[in-house]
Amino acid sequence: MANQWVNQAIGKIEADFQRSADTHLIKLTLPALSGIDIYLKDESTHPTGSLKHRLARSLFLYGLCNGWIQEQTTIIESSSGSTAVSEAYFARLLGLPFIAVMPKSTAKKKVQQIEFYGGQCHFVDHSSEIYAESQRLAKELNGHYMDQFTYAERATDWRGNNNIANAIFDQMQKEPHPTPTWIVMSPGTGGTSATIGRYIRYQQETTQLCVVDPENSVFFDYFKTGDTTLTCDNGSRIEGIGRPRAEPSFIPGVVDHMIKVDDAASIACIRLLEKSIGRKTGPSTGTNLYGVLMLAKQMQQNQQQGSIVTLLCDAGERYLDTYYNDEWVANNIGDTSEYEALLSPFFNDD
After folding, report:
1. Domain 53-152 architecture
2. DSSP labels for 243-293?
């Protein structure tokens, strides 16, 4: 009977996937970068509004197929928001209780979305506390700790099977430069960069993977030093990416290049991007875009043409009370005007 419920659960998830189309690849027109085509893979159009919808689906299938998730299993996840929103969606689909362990600073809109899907939010003071508290709750409730920071890199089939890298290369086929020179990604768990990097190598593509890391995150230093014991005291101010420790799902060996991005640059980018595409995007998209612009500038200086693909990770409407609130930005991020002035020529028509 247990297998019958698992079979039904997997069937529900697969049916949900079958009802969904892939996400759009948006061409960003920047006349200042003539000969360099930039694309945004718009992950905000998933049912739960972010890139993490893919991860949540994979983690549930992984847990079900491993026998970790059974009927009535309480699902626990450590998350700053988007993964928890998506996992709450799938937990409701399967009729399972869901608890998200997250920092108190998580955007209110994400908390509301988790609760909308029937999940509970369990808050901690600092992002470094989410791991131990999730493990404690799982043990106390005899539940399953999804642990995205460990399993994100292995829950998705990186060889193909409609993963995000597979989709990007398929959608680029009819573009002027169908094989991207670069794909740019920011790490939260590191799972998406692992999938993309492995896929590039498996398919023997010439594309290079650049990972962009915000302030208050150890991924950049981990990439440079290989030191798995690195930690930082403060949590990332760019919600959803950057971690205070070297997460098991971050695989530095598949990354070709990393760029450290100031938080003010990330916010400047989403403000400029909004003027260009008429839409608000989440702050991690700003981190991604800054990396894209730096690589494009380098390509231009080298008189190189080509394409760069990055991710629009989620919509900005989740962050109206934070990254799109001038007072909050001034108090928590600082002055972004210097970066807006520095980057605005990329977006000008002349």
Report:
1. 3-Layer(aba) Sandwich (3.40)
2. -SB--TT--GGG-SEEEE--HHHHHHHHHHHHHHHS--B-HHHHHHHHHHH
Token pair listed for 335 = 């002055």
What would the two tokens of residue 8 be? Answer: 């039904």
Q: Evaluate whether the domain defined by 21-47+158-343 bears CATH number 3.40.50.1100.
A: yes
pLDDT in tens, 205-251: 999 999 999 999 999 999 999 999 999 988 899 998 999 999 999 99
Rounded to whole angstroms, the Cα distance separating 158 from 1 reads 32
In this structure, what token pair is assigned to residue 280?
């608000």
Strand partners, 281: 315
This prediction has a pTM of 0.93
Within 8 A by CB and 6+ apart from 197, the residues are 209, 251, 253, 254, 255, 256
Under 8 Å between Cβ of 49 and 315: yes
Please give the Cα distance from 345 to 350 (Å, whole number).
Answer: 8
* Residue corresponding to tokens 């509301």: 112
Q: What is the mean pLDDT of the chain?
A: 94
The amino acid sitting at 339 is Y
Would you state the pLDDT for residue 234? 87
Classify strands 36-42 and 25-28 as parallel, antiparallel or unpaired.
Answer: antiparallel
Q: Which contacts of 220-225 are long-range, i.e. CB under 8 A and separated by 24 or more positions?
A: 220/258, 220/259, 220/260, 222/246, 222/250, 222/252, 223/252, 223/255, 223/258, 224/258
Residue 235's DSSP bridge partners are none
